[in-house]
Amino acid sequence: MSEQATSTPHAISVRGVSKTYKGGFQALKSVDLDIRRGEIFALLGPNGAGKTTLISIICGIVKPSHGTVTADGHDVLRDYRATRMRIGLVPQELSTDAFETVWAAVRFSRGLFGRSRNDKHIEKVLRDLSLWDKKDAKIMTLSGGMKRRVLIAKALAHEPSILFLDEPTAGVDVELRHDMWNMVRALRDTGVTVILTTHYIDEAEEMADRVGVITRGELILVEEKDVLMRKLGKKQLAISLQAPMQTLPEGLGEYALELADDGATLLYTFDVKSEDTGIAVLLRKLGDRGVDFKDLHTLESSLEDIFVNLVRGTP
Amino acid sequence: MNIPAIHAIYRFEMARTFRTLTQSIVSPVLSTSLYFVVFGAAIGSRMGDIGGTSYGAFIIPGLIMLSLLNESISNASFGIYLPKWSGTIYELLSAPVSPFEAVLGYVGAASTKSVLLGALILLTARFFVPYHIIHPIWMIAFLLLTAVTFSLFGFIIGLWADDFQKLQVIPLMVVTPLTFLGGAFYSIGMLPPFWQKAALFNPVVYLISGFRWSFYGQSDVNVVVSVGMTMVFLLLCAMAVAWIFRSGYKLRA
After folding, report:
1. B34-89 pLDDT per residue, tens
2. Structural domain tally of chain A?
3. How far is CA A31 from the centre of its chain?
4. Does one domain contain both A247 and A284?
5. How many Å from the N-terminal Cα to the C-terminal Cα in chain B?
6. Same domain membership, residue A154 and residue A289
7. Residue A140: inside a domain, yes or no?
8. Pairing state of beta strands A265-270 and A235-241?
């Protein structure tokens, strides 16, 4: 690794990147983004938001209209050899060499990225991805999930320090999704920076250190996942009532209360950042008004709720 | 220079050839052998010599050239079109591979296949027609030069094509007619004066003429002109490929 590479704190730096395709469609609008070395970064966004375009620009497949991108301090256009050797890409589409064997396809990838032959490394990658038994099988004979693993194996064949996973678990079963999550965590533990785009919010919630939300070509938010959930998430106290109510009790207008489940549940939304949630006083006041309850539990916003609110909130 | 990448592409392409041996090698050798049987052994025995060479022997360079041109174009165009069609081109575009290295890998493999095929056809011809080669070094040089030039041309077609039909249009509608009309089966000198002059606009004439000269020392056009025209076409193809990669035409959005 060069001196420049080790001195920069970011694995990827995107500065003012815009992309307008030939037809005039603007896929990205002056995007700035820094990906920290060794983190798992989830890029969320609805279809057509610009996720794949951004990844494709960083990986050299699409040319930016404006702006610069560096990987480990190297410009992806001027110093493409240095950057591309560091980057592995698992594309969204299941694009495979159907007539090749798994082994041949993965070995080809390693060579293509300038690495000398290393059968031991390829064996390790295939074993880690539970593909070793299929190494001599033609890719066309594999299931969709197995093909996805082959794509990951190809991306890891040249030992990249930055891995892009574009919708890695699209169309794979639950078991394989969990296997992949474990694999991504294991990669991160070895120092690999992982950037993933996903439609599955639970995937980002489960794995990501930081989350970026992109919509209509604009990066509207980048935040630590936990901070984001604290900042934008809301908590609710769900009070299961002994007897259903038709209307909210009087004199409690200062509390954000609402009725749910046909009046069987009273929901109180409170600020997680506030030192005094007001729960104790509310419960006392409910008791004073003769409102009995049989159960209490809190509800927390999921990342999905936050994401939907963010995307809907943009013009 | 990314040598492992060139090697990987080359090996990958060659592996495809050996995986589809019947289609890649056996079929063109067999079909060319039929020409030798029909035009060489059967009809050729009833035809007179051309410039002191038996008709069966006369058509050997033209037939090899016919296969060489078609196979070079077909191998190279298919080699680069297939990843475009299957979507695996993303890997080449995101790899630390320069355009020159990619061309070396793909065109190198396509040329190798074509030269192998040409050599096999030449060996096969020995079973049907006696022949000799006066300038073997020049014969190999023409074989290599033509294979590389038309593999480059095929590479351009593969980059340009966006469906399988387009992949076939140029070889079937342009190259094969030009080869048939380029003196594969006759000497340009046998044509009426007007068509002799018109034939000079056919680039394949220069290839066949030069190649035939390396066999029998006789040519329709000066051999220096043949070499020059082949080099010009090679240069044009190389420039076109360089422009395609630089501009990203049909490759990078």
Report:
1. 887 787 767 767 777 777 788 888 888 888 888 888 889 988 998 889 888 888 88
2. 2
3. 17
4. yes
5. 25
6. no
7. yes
8. antiparallel
| Distance of residue A7 Cα from the nearest chain B Cα, in angstroms | 23
* Shared-domain flag, residues A198 and A297: no
| SS3 state of residue B131 | coil
The nearest CA of chain B is from the CA of A63 a distance in Å of: 6
Q: What angle do CA B117, B140, B118 make, to 5 degrees?
A: 15
Decide which of A230, A253, A285 is a domain's last residue.
Answer: A230
Q: Which residues fall within 8 angstroms of residue A204, CB to CB, at 6 or more apart?
A: A42, A44, A196, A198, A211, A225, A303
Looking at the structure, do residues A69 and A85 belong to the same domain, yes or no? yes
Is A264 part of a structural domain of the chain? yes
Contact residues, chain A, for B90 at CB < 8 Å = 61, 89, 91, 95
pLDDT tens digits along A204-234: 778 888 988 888 888 888 888 777 776 666 7
| Closest residue to A111, CB basis, from B7, B87, B253 | B7
Please give the residue range of the domain that contains residue A69. Answer: 3-230
Q: What is the largest CA-CA distance in chain B?
A: 59
Q: What are the percentages of helix, strand and coil residues in chain B, rounded to 5?
A: 80, 0, 20
CB spacing of A113 vs B12 below 8 angstroms: no
**Nearest beta carbon to residue B96 from set A21, A61, A80:** A80
The C-alpha atoms of residue B236 and residue B99 are separated, in whole angstroms, by: 16
* Interface with A, mutate which of B88, B89, B92, B246 (most A CBs under 10 A): B88
Write out pLDDT tens, residues A250-279: 888 888 888 888 888 998 887 766 677 788
* A173 in any annotated domain: yes
Contact A112 B92 (CB under 8 A): yes
Last residue of a domain, which of A169, A204, A230?
A: A230
A207 Cβ neighbours under 8 A, 6+ residues apart: A40, A42, A181, A184, A185, A196
What is the ipTM for the molecules in this complex? 0.79
CATH of the domain at A257: 3.30.70
Residue A246: strand, helix, or coil: coil
Of A105, A144, A145, A108, nearest to A129 by C-alpha is: A145
